[in-house]
Amino acid sequence: MAGIYIHIPFCKQACHYCDFHFSTSLKLKEPLLLALHQEIASRKDELSMDPIETIYFGGGTPSILEIDEIKKILELVYMHYQVVDEVEITLESNPDDLSPKKIKGLRTSMINRFSIGVQSFFEEDLQYMNRVHSVSEAERSVKSVQDAGFENITIDLIYGTPTLSKEHWEENLRKTISLEVPHVSCYALTVEENTPLEHLIRRKKLPLVEDAQVADHFLMLVEQLIPVGFEQYEISNFSKPGYRSRHNTAYWSGKAYLGFGPGAHSFNGKDQRRWNLSNNALYVQKTAAKETYWDQEILTEKDRYNEFIMTQIRLQEGISLDLVERKFGQSYKQHLLNGLEGFSKDAYTLLDNKMVLTIQGKLISDRLASDLFF
Ligand code: SF4
Hints:
Elements: E1 2-8, H1 29-42, E2 52-59, H2 67-80, E3 83-93, H3 100-107, E4 113-119, H4 123-129, H5 135-147, E5 153-159, H6 166-178, E6 183-188, H7 196-202, H8 211-225, E7 231-234, E8 237-239, H9 246-252, E9 256-260, E10 265-267, E11 272-276, H10 280-288, E12 294-298, H11 301-312, E13 319-320, H12 321-328, H13 330-340, E14 348-351, E15 354-357, H14 359-363, H15 365-372
Parallel strand pairs: 1-2, 1-9, 2-3, 3-4, 4-5, 5-6
Antiparallel strand pairs: 6-8, 7-8, 10-11, 11-12, 13-15, 14-15
């Protein structure tokens, strides 16, 4: 089984914190979609007929596309790949795009999962992040998608924003619970290099993101979502039973996927990663000229071990020491055990040959993972 990721590199407005690949100009939309169609058709033999079980429209803002444009992409995927009947097809969407008319149109497409970028139910946070939508659009969009009969919905929230008090974060979580969505992804606001957010903070135009606040919000998140039936199956992802993201779960379990569109990454399920140029004009130009529009790397055993640690440590099931030994050998397992000795026993449990992070460990998961790298 394999997955397909489709990157739609357009947004109406640049969020201050964003370091994804996108353009706010739609000038190249038509030629870019043609290039995307060409890429979908031309790579049909790469998965050696592995059936496709998940398709994910990410971005950028895929909901910026017209219904017919989404349908055309899916038609091509179905034409060139073998897609399973019970496929999961996710559309990342921004609330301002989800008008009742658009949702009605999407009902006639094969999209069966929505990921809605709510981020916060408070205007001051949306303004801090420079999100294009309003609070009322956020609430209305979730309800409209539900009213149209879609059940498999996830919303994204961001915490740690300096404008987000503890009370407001609690209210965001309460509101999320009351909306009865079966999946929530919550990310700590991070200040990436060369983003407008970094620039504005450096020039003291916006307040700093404080680590202590991020940690407080994370603890509140877990305290509020777990008792109402969500499982934290990955550090940033919470689902009701049966609603884990199949697409992301496949990523984390090392399955193969093809990424189409500028900036999209692909993995062959073994040792090869490939990524398309993060430049819309060049992607269009090189695809049309049948020139190479990607770069690639072959992963060493050490790279594969490090990636394994980086993803598995974030999962509810944790890192299986038996699996580490089977995949990489005894010396890697020993390296992992040695690395763990540097951490307090409050950070993880080691039971039945599985290392699982505690809530304290989740707060320092990045540092823990990098200390276990080979
Ligand atoms: S909508 Fe998403 S991709 Fe676009 S700028 Fe905002 S965070 Fe980045």
